Amino acid sequence: MNDFIKEVRTQSTILPEVFNLYKTSEKHRIKEIADHFNEKSFDKIILVGMGSSLYAAHSVTSYLSSKGIPSLVLSAYDLKEYNMAQINSKSLVVCISQSGNSWEVLELAREIKGKTTVVGIYNNEDGELSQLCDFKLPLFAGVETSITNKTYQCTLLVLNMLVHEICNDNDEKFESEVEIVIDWCSDWLSNYRDKTMPLLKFSEDVEMYDFMAYSESLSTARQAGLIFREGLKAYTCSSEFADYAHGLFLSAQKNYLGLMFFPVLKGTNTEGRMINHILGDDGKIILFTTDKVDEDTNLLPVILPKVRPSLVPIMEIIPCDTLMGMLLGEGWSR
């Protein structure tokens, strides 16, 4: 076991701890934001960050849209330099930074302070972001020393709890689904060698990784692409699936692995064409889904429990973490 996997495995205790905190002693934090959002009649939510903090935000935008709340996900740099016209007094801006000190996030927060309401999501409570935001949502993930993993997971969880509270959906059904997700993650991490070994063997001799998804699972595709590049120094590409079908699929060949994150297989022509193309060109696919899929020579499914789509990324990234960790080898240390 290397340092990355050791830290990843701490999520089996950290996720339930953070969930319980925001259900009990810290619930007032998300409730105050939800009450403020509804009292002030905000007309949209803008979620910003950089890197993993930015990617996590994709997990909740479709849920917000389904509840009639427009939302945007932009890098803090993009928003400040090119899209400030998106912000007015009716925009709730959620600034996410694990360190609380990402300079792009801080510059944006300084610029908009006093002009609209800013929510800060961060892990480092000594970071400057905690001083610039109107509402504070600490991640309580503890010190992270390896490639980003547990702070990303906690961001997914806290974002879900926040938006469900805003939409008056933070009910028993939601909480029971979160518990299903946490139990699944804990089981995988407790038995990570046995769970990950089929993925490891399947990935032997891979030279190129494509990560593709749609909607909420774009969080996973982008985060997984980042950690494989950062850890393995691998050639990776993360893309929205329909866009992948416009030329990116032509890279499929022997020693190619496509990791597809499709919580629900929609049965579209695009899905079928891309899967058949990759397999037809001797590529391999690991397919993450809640639907039943039969294993094939070059197609390995990872079947997830059925929960609402915004929660699925919390599970999807766990096998990616342990696979990347095992590919790094026993002695790896950052």
TrEMBL record:
Stretches assigned to the SIS domain: 33-172
InterPro entries reported for this sequence: GlmS/AgaS_SIS (IPR035466), SIS_dom (IPR001347), SIS_dom_sf (IPR046348)
Signal sequence residues: none
Record-level GO BP terms: fructose 6-phosphate metabolic process; protein N-linked glycosylation; UDP-N-acetylglucosamine metabolic process
Transmembrane segments: none
Catalysed transformations (reactions): D-fructose 6-phosphate + L-glutamine = D-glucosamine 6-phosphate + L-glutamate
SUPFAM superfamilies reported in the protein's UniProt record: SIS domain
Alphabetical keyword list: Repeat
CDD domains (UniProt xref): SIS_GlmS_GlmD_1
Keyword Isomerase recorded: no
Pfam family, one: SIS
GO cellular component: cytosol
EC number: 2.6.1.16
Molecular-function GO terms, alphabetical: carbohydrate derivative binding; glutamine-fructose-6-phosphate transaminase (isomerizing) activity
The protein, known as: Glutamine--fructose-6-phosphate aminotransferase [isomerizing]
Species this protein is from: [Clostridium] ultunense Esp
Lineage of producing organism: Bacteria, Bacillati, Bacillota, Tissierellia, Tissierellales
